[in-house]
Write a structure and sequence with these properties.
Keywords: Disulfide bond, Glycoprotein, Immunoglobulin domain, Membrane, Repeat, Signal, Transmembrane, Transmembrane helix. The protein is mainly β. It is built from no helices and 43 strands.
Length: about 500
């Protein structure tokens, strides 16, 4: 039995067997290319020669190949053992990359090699934690990486990418959004809805208006989100809403989400008048400041406590509240700073009273705003650090202040077949699944806005994606297995 040590990990393996002295009855008898499962293949030997079989089993980078040739109850055994640089593992946090009282956070180290010992290291620490399962509970913040070694290869693999674990005394905030395409709705509507999304699953949610907890209908369609359904009578003085969550009754509430402003008018008061300044008939240049003046008729006011005004934008796809302001008088001025072509739209305003029964007006007539020039480019952010290993998923975040657009992804200036239609928030996550070396390149994103007329932004800043694949190489070795004098089987192994 001979022992062969190969130099590189097996990406593919080909075994060919042939006769040292050519014969018309014996031809090439085997071609094998597999790394996934164990298999047994029979050699195509003629009836005049003894039977033979090849058993191929793979487990990561350690591969055992047995060639059995039966000669009068004897067995010839060829053992091929491969070693080489161990591929990097990858490290991920579950459920989130942070720790807080009451939450159990784990780091999971994974690789393609079986039967190994994983090691977790925190930057600045002297020692490592070792486990065969690769699951480590995290108790301290820091920058973590992992690697591993095998029972036969004590030189550890290269380290994984770094995962940063943060520590929060109070859990970070959730995200609150309106489920409607509009945040200013017709009085015939029976309810409005808000969606609260937490970074954790199986938590308790709470919706608040100021310091007041809202006792409204809650529906949860998945463990990390909850929908709150509001009636007109729940709106109060139309103060902003926030949401928060907690792990259980024994833990602290999270920070509040960013506030979401809703205005819902019963349209029982006279409509206001909206004007644009400095001129309602001109087109504005990019970067300008535009003022909208919303004036309520004094004759229709029934309260001296003041009014809440709301400015909203409307186009074919969107009906969105932009700003709200309180005023002790009957008018207010809204400002749009640093306008761009994406601000070109139709605008209107409403007002509501600040005291019960919180009556509101019908919307004003529309004022059309036109801004010259191309829209501002978006920003592209990589949601990973360093090189990415082949087979992993990556996410690129395209950020823009413009909603209701089509977002496109480009690699080295060429369109990637990936689009997101009608982005309703200020970013969109573009995912690439199971990347390989072919995905390496410089990525940018852009968006197209269709109203009031089609306009396409310039590309964003570039983000470079480097994909690190498995090591490759070619090693060819041969064995001559003597069957009987003058005849042998030559085994060539190439990777």
């Amino acid at each position: 039995m001979d022992l062969l040590v190969l130099l590189e990990p097996l990406a593919s393996l080909t075994l060919t067997c042939k006769v040292c002295e050519p014969s018309k009855d014996l031809h090439r008898i085997l071609h094998l290319s597999s790394m996934e499962t164990a298999c047994t293949l029979s050699l195509a030997l003629p009836p005049t020669l003894p039977s033979a079989s090849l058993i191929f089993s793979a487990s990561g980078v350690h591969t055992l190949i047995l060639l059995r040739v039966r000669l009068n109850h004897s067995l010839i055994l060829l053992s091929l053992i491969h070693t080489g640089p161990l591929p990097r593992p990858w490290l991920s946090a579950n459920p989130v990359p942070w720790i807080t009282p009451g939450l159990r956070t784990f780091l999971l180290c994974q690789g393609t090699v079986r039967d190994v010992v994983f090691m977790l290291r925190r930057e600045g620490d002297d020692g490592n934690k070792e486990k065969e399962q690769g699951i480590f509970q995290v108790h301290e913040p820091g920058n973590y990486s992992c690697n591993y070694y095998t029972n036969t290869e004590y030189t550890p693999s290269k380290p994984s990418g770094t995962v940063t674990i943060k520590e929060y005394v109070i859990p970070p905030p959730p995200m609150l959004t309106s489920l409607e395409s509009s945040t200013v709705d017709e009085p015939e509507m029976t309810q409005m809805s808000l969606l609260c999304v937490a970074p954790l699953s199986d938590v308790e949610f709470q919706l608040r208006q100021g310091e007041r907890e809202m006792k409204v209908l809650i529906v949860s369609t998945s463990p990390e989100r909850a929908s709150f359904y509001l009636k007109l009578s729940d709106m109060g003085d139309h103060s902003p809403f926030t949401c928060r969550y907690r792990l259980n009754r024994m833990t602290a509430w999270s920070e509040d989400s960013k506030p979401v402003q809703l205005m819902w008018s019963d349209e029982t008061l006279p409509e206001p008048v909206l004007t644009v300044e400095p001129s309602p008939h001109q087109s504005f240049e990019p970067g300008s400041t535009v003022q909208f003046r919303c004036t309520a008729p004094k004759a229709g006011l029934r309260s001296e406590a003041g009014l809440r005004f709301g400015l909203h934008l409307e186009d074919l796809y969107d009906h969105r509240l932009l700003q709200t302001q309180k005023s002790s008088g009957n008018e207010t001025v809204f400002q749009l700073r640093n306008v761009s072509a994406t601000d070109s739209a139709s605008y209107s305003c409403i007002y509501t009273e600040l005291t019960p029964p919180y009556s509101g007006s019908a919307p004003s007539d529309f004022v059309i705003l036109r801004v010259n020039g191309p829209p501002p480019p978006p920003k592209l952010q990589a949601l990973w650090t360093g090189k990415v290993f082949a087979g992993h998923d990556v996410v690129l975040r395209c950020q823009s202040d413009v909603t209701g657009v089509i977002v496109e992804l480009l690699r080295d200036g060429k369109f990637v077949p990936y689009r997101i239609l009608r982005v309703l928030n200020n970013y969109s996550d573009l995912g690439l699944h199971s990347v390989g070396p072919q995905h390496t390149g410089n990525y940018t994103c852009r968006y197209t806005s269709w109203l009031p007329e089609p306009v396409q932004s310039e590309p964003s800043n570039p983000v470079e994606l480097l994909v690190e694949g498995m090591a490759s190489g070619v090693v060819v070795v041969g064995f001559c297995l003597l069957i009987f004098p003058g005849l042998c089987i030559l085994v060539n192994c190439a990777i």
